[in-house]
């Protein structure tokens, strides 16, 4: 018996037939000069039934890698060959994107405003719109992020490992590190957890910069998840990276003011007691050494060679010393598969 075709997909005042795609512009807010701002959603409604996957980027407006991942995804998907529905939102925080800022105009973090409020402040209203028009329609979510300004993140997935569906998505993504991450109040991840929707969060690169290795890895990761969900046909791309699972992580902070002479790189495995950096004064004098308090892998670091006491310098995903050879091999495999060049 032939499978029944899905019903048309309706969003706002737009109806998308099976096997078709459309751009939906959802009125979201206005600028001070009364210029309207719309939330742009690219809808790909498959010819066959299947999941509804929401892929979104730039909840923090200065995080650009996810926008380029979404653009590449939009140009590659054929709805006639798709099972289920793909919803792509390249820029969630339009205000921050325009201003090249992480935040909204009132300095609120949109990723602390969920589930939102129809009558609240700007962040709450935008979160409410995103929640009720998009999140509630989704069966699965991939949320794309980068490191903050002047900080780089090794490609990693953050997920609640207690959620079996989300863990399966994380493994299919094919990323070097999978972090067991607790939900943060007001975040999209927390909202998805409350609604029972499996969500994975991809972190890679630095704000306001394109990292082409992270972009290619992210694009292939999203399509890998779509193949795992049987939304797309074909084998998963690239040689499989065996990820390191980390139950916790920590930031190593500066012990004094001065200049940082880093001794380790992003993605490097480290052992407890290993030298991470020296901190020196621009006027000479005593050198302070910073050592790793744990075994692990550098998944994030500050790119500014100047520090104040207490500032976060190195983010380390923690694991047992016996896992270091596996982690080293994993990083080498990933770097070989995703060279950082503009393709």
Question: Explain this structure to me?
Answer:
- The chain is of the alpha+beta class.
- It has 2 domains: 9-238, 3-Layer(aba) Sandwich (Aminopeptidase), CATH 3.40.630; 248-337, OB fold (Dihydrolipoamide Acetyltransferase, E2P).
- It has 7 helices and 19 strands.
- The protein has helices at 65-76, 94-99, 122-133, 164-173, 188-195, 212-228, 324-337, and strands at 9-11, 14-16, 20-30, 36-45, 48-57, 83-89, 140-145, 151-159, 177-180, 199-205, 244-246, 249-253, 258-262, 269-270, 275-280, 288-291, 296-302, 306-307, 312-318.
- The strands form 3 sheets. Strands 3, 4, 5, 6, 7, 8, 9, 10, 11, 12, 14, 17 and 19 form a 13-stranded mixed beta sheet that branches.
- Strand 5 (48-57), helix 1 and strand 6 form a beta-alpha-beta unit.
- Helix 4 packs across helix 6 (212-228).
- It is globular, with a radius of gyration of 21 Å.
Q: Which word captures the global form? A: globular
Main beta-sheet strand count, sense and barrel state: 13 strands, mixed
Continuous helix count: 7
Structural class: alpha+beta
N/C terminus separation: 44 Å
Q: Assign the CATH superfamily of the largest domain.
A: Zn peptidases
Overall mean pLDDT stands at 93
Number of separate structural domains: 2
CATH topology descriptor of the largest domain? Aminopeptidase
- What integer value in Å does the Rg equal? 21 Å
CATH class value of the largest domain: Alpha Beta
The helix content, as a percent range, equals 10-25%
What is the N-to-C succession of helices and strands? EEEEEHEHHEEHEHEHEEEEEEEEEH
**Proportion of strand residues:** 25-35%
């Amino acid at each position: 018996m032939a499978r029944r075709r899905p019903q048309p997909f309706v969003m706002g005042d737009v109806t998308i037939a099976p096997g078709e795609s459309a751009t939906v512009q959802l009125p979201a807010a206005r600028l001070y000069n009364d210029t309207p701002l719309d939330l742009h959603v690219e809808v790909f409604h498959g010819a066959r039934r299947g999941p509804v996957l929401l892929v979104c980027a730039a909840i923090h407006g200065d995080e650009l890698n996810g926008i380029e991942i979404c653009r590449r995804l939009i140009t590659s998907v054929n709805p006639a060959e798709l099972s289920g529905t793909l919803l792509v939102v390249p820029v969630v925080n339009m205000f921050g994107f325009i201003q090249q800022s992480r935040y909204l105009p009132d300095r609120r973090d949109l990723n602390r405003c969920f589930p939102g409020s129809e009558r609240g402040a700007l962040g709450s209203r935008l979160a409410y719109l995103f929640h009720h028009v998009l999140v509630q329609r989704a069966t699965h979510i991939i949320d794309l992020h980068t490191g903050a300004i002047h900080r780089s993140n090794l490609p990693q997935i953050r997920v609640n490992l207690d959620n079996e569906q989300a863990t399966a998505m994380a493994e299919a993504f094919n990323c070097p590190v999978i972090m067991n991450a607790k939900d943060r109040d007001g975040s999209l991840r927390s909202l998805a957890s409350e609604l029972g929707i499996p969500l994975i969060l991809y972190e890679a690169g630095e704000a306001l910069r394109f990292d082409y290795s992270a972009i290619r890895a992210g694009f292939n990761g999203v399509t890998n998840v779509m193949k795992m969900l049987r939304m797309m046909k074909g084998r998963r791309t690239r040689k499989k990276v065996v990820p390191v699972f980390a139950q916790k992580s920590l930031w190593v902070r500066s012990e004094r003011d001065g200049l940082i002479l880093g001794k380790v790189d992003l993605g490097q495995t480290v052992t407890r007691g290993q030298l991470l950096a020296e901190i020196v004064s621009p006027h000479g004098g005593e050198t302070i050494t910073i050592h790793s308090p744990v075994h692990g892998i550098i998944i994030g670091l500050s790119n500014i060679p100047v520090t104040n006491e207490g500032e976060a310098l190195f983010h380390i995903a923690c694991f047992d010393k016996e896992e270091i050879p596996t982690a080293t091999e994993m990083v080498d495999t990933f770097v070989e598969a995703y060279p950082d060049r503009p393709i």
